[in-house]
Amino acid sequence: MTLTQLEYLLAVDTYRHFATAAEKCFVTQPTLSMQIQKLEEELGVQVFDRSRVPVRPTELGIEIILQARVTVAEFKKIEELVKVQRDGIGGELRIGVIPTLAPYLIPLFITDFIQKYPQVHVVIQELVTSSIVEKLRLELLDVGLLVTPLNDKTMVEVPLFYEAFVGYLHPSHALAKQKTITAEEIDPADLWLLNEGHCFRSQVLQLCNRAKSTRNVHLDYESGSLETLKRIVETQSGMTLLPELSVQELSEEKKAMVRPFAEPQPLREVSLVVHRSFLKKRMIEALRDEIVGHLPAGLRERNPVRVVKIK
């Protein structure tokens, strides 16, 4: 059993296609297939079920692949230690960020991070939580910026800050007359929501103690963008709930449409998430420090009294 064979094994698991895996490993398909077959013969088990399209690991193969990921990662950590000592922090850093966080958090720190670490090439993908977690598992991303807890034992979560929910109300809305709002006062028929698949949507419904939206209007519009929800509230009617960072840069006129929740404010936990066998430790630590250092003071110092979980 060789490290190269294990790397080929992981490539096939990641791409579920022998030809694509060979291309990513910069070898011919016959070479990759032969090495995996030799590994299976040495182990005396079949790791992949080749009768299925796309190819899938067998039941025992899943366990073997999990251990192979740990083994390969531990070996690469040795290479990483030497490289950081020799060259400093550098290389590619692939970050996955959820859409309700990316437009508001990334601009706070990314310019200073790149200037501080010029040898780091940052690649950012805006994805929903489930896609980020899957890409972390397959090592297609190095780190995720997500709302937690995920309750996934294969992931390590490092909380960064706690962000408040706020209401964004049309001026004609009944609650607009109040300085603060409560979840119990929100009528789900007035509430504009994100599409299915966004963790922020599930948190909003949970906060309002609703399993689903029950709008009773002539227009039924669920968006994938918080900015679209803002525009709908501004031009139509009703209200939406937003994360705190998304209202930081509003004009004074639009800030007048924002209503905080009464204390204790509902919060969402934003964390840096990595796979349990993650690499690029120094680079990810630098990312964490840079994010926290650029947060508004109120987010850095907040005590998490009422965190809304994800269901």
UniProtKB/TrEMBL annotation:
Signal sequence range: none
PANTHER family: HTH-TYPE TRANSCRIPTIONAL REGULATOR YBHD, LYSR-FAMILY TRANSCRIPTIONAL REGULATOR
Name of the molecule in the record: Transcriptional regulator
Residue stretches making up the HTH lysR-type domain: 1-58
Keyword Metal-binding in record: no
Source organism: Rufibacter radiotolerans
Gene3D superfamilies hit by this protein: Periplasmic binding protein-like II (3.40.190.10), Winged helix-like DNA-binding domain superfamily/Winged helix DNA-binding domain (1.10.10.10)
Molecular function terms, GO-annotated: DNA binding; DNA-binding transcription factor activity
InterPro entries: HTH-type_LysR_regulators, LysR_HTH_N, LysR_subst-bd, WH-like_DNA-bd_sf, WH_DNA-bd_sf
Gene Ontology cellular-component terms listed: cytosol
Keyword field contains Transcription: yes
Keywords, ordered alphabetically: DNA-binding, Transcription, Transcription regulation
